[in-house]
Write a structure and sequence with these properties.
It is built from two helices and 28 strands. The chain is mainly beta. It has one domain: Methylamine Dehydrogenase, Chain H (7 Propeller), CATH 2.130.10. The chain is globular and about 90 Å long. It starts with a helix and ends with a strand. 42% of the residues are buried.
Length: 391
């Protein structure tokens, strides 16, 4: 075949292709994609029934966060970064969220900067920060490591170097006002009726109460006698508050109610949660935020497990026990759902919990010990231990 024959055949094939193409309708050209515009917005006003879930993200701990969910339908509403082992608290008015955290200049190394970050709860947006002394407690998420005083003037941040102290942050001045040494004591439990007073649990079994002046300086410190034995039956650090009333739970299940409104803490009542056959079966409380008291101060719900022993105090719940504080007796036993943490809504209409095995969030309607499923979020976090209600 000559070169001329080859060219002729190629030309003929091309003509056939063109002829076939001419008989087909042209494919429409898709519209050009418009550039995406990022926007910000606020949480819709209808989402007042929300819950804040703190996740320490233990496998990548410099990337902690708070996830916010609608407690009625489980819808994800937004997220706030808590960086390295950050702890948080809500303002009593629920208009601001305070995060005490640590940032390293090179993500996982470098210069350390401790800050108190203030966020708006409606937009979850950052408002401002206050630089803290680089000594705040880098601890798992617990209530009491960051709290606002009863009048909202100061935010109190737990320090550990390992020496313990409290950094007092003046919110109006956006500055550190003072550092209060608190040797041997831990955590912040503000009084409600005295705007600048807080108490702490101490390792020797006492409770210390500190009163601040208008400048955030400690002007009074008083200590109770020994209220518990840290070796024989320690108290969980988690406490439940209704006004000046605070409840504490011991490892063996003893409930103690204190009034923390005065210059020195006062014991108001004690109850034995576990007795008789339950005691013989080794039932004990377990978890992190492991019990909750409803806003009326009548019902206490605790995560319980059998065959308790030394070291079982963080075990997820096999059952939830409902204890009537007014009647002084247990009023219901509910499924445990492997609960590690519990909290009531501020209006008392819901009980919310974190499943320690599945990382799930439960939200139940509450009616004097009876639960009704409202929402279930199967993956509310990787290592979530602390939750708070907005309403």
């Amino acid at each position: 075949m000559t070169p001329r024959d080859t060219l002729a055949r190629v030309g003929f094939a091309a003509c056939l292709v063109l002829a076939g193409s001419a008989g087909q309708a042209a494919k429409p050209v898709p519209a050009e994609l418009q550039p995406e515009t990022l926007t910000t917005s606020t949480i819709a006003a209808r989402h007042t029934a929300r819950v804040y879930v703190a996740d320490v993200a233990i496998s990548h701990i410099s990337d902690g966060r708070i996830r916010v969910y609608d407690a009625l339908d489980g819808r994800f509403l937004g997220m706030v970064s808590t960086a390295y082992a950050g702890n948080f608290a809500l303002a009593d008015q629920r208009d601001e969220l305070y995060v005490a955290t640590t940032h390293l200049s090179r993500s996982t190394r470098g210069d350390r900067t401790d800050v108190l970050e203030v966020h708006d709860t409606q937009s979850l947006g950052f408002k401002y920060e206050v630089l803290l002394p680089p000594k705040r407690a880098q601890a798992l998420n617990y209530r009491g490591l960051v709290r606002a005083t009863g009048n909202g003037k100061f935010v109190l941040v737990q320090n550990a170097t390992p020496a313990t102290s409290i950094t007092v942050v003046d919110l109006a001045g956006r500055k550190v006002a003072a550092e209060v040494p608190t040797p041997g004591c831990w955590g912040v439990m503000p009084a409600a009726t005295h705007g600048q007073r807080f108490s702490m649990l101490c390792g020797d079994g006492t409770v210390a109460t500190v009163t601040l002046d208008d400048n955030g300086q400690a002007i009074d410190r008083q200590v109770t006698g020994k209220l518990f034995d840290g070796d024989a039956d320690a108290w969980f650090h988690h406490a439940e508050q209704v006004g000046d009333r605070y409840w504490f739970l011991s490892f063996h299940g003893r409930i103690t109610e204190l009034n923390l409104g005065g210059a020195v803490a006062q014991v108001k009542a004690t109850h034995d949660l576990v007795a008789g056959a339950d005691q013989k079966a080794g039932w004990r409380p377990g978890g992190y935020q492991n019990f909750a008291v409803d806003p009326s101060g009548r019902y206490l719900v605790a995560g319980m497990h059998p065959q308790g022993a030394e070291g079982s105090h963080k075990r997820p719940a096999a059952k939830l026990w409902v204890y009537d504080l007014q009647a002084g007796k247990r009023s219901a036993v509910l499924p445990g759902a492997a609960v590690l943490s519990l909290t009531f809504s501020q209006n008392g209409q819901r009980l919310m919990a974190l499943d320690g095995e599945k990382g799930a969030l439960h939200s139940w309607g509450w009616n004097a010990g009876k639960l009704k499923k409202l929402a279930y979020v199967p993956g509310a976090g990787e290592a979530s231990l602390h939750l708070e209600s907005h309403d």
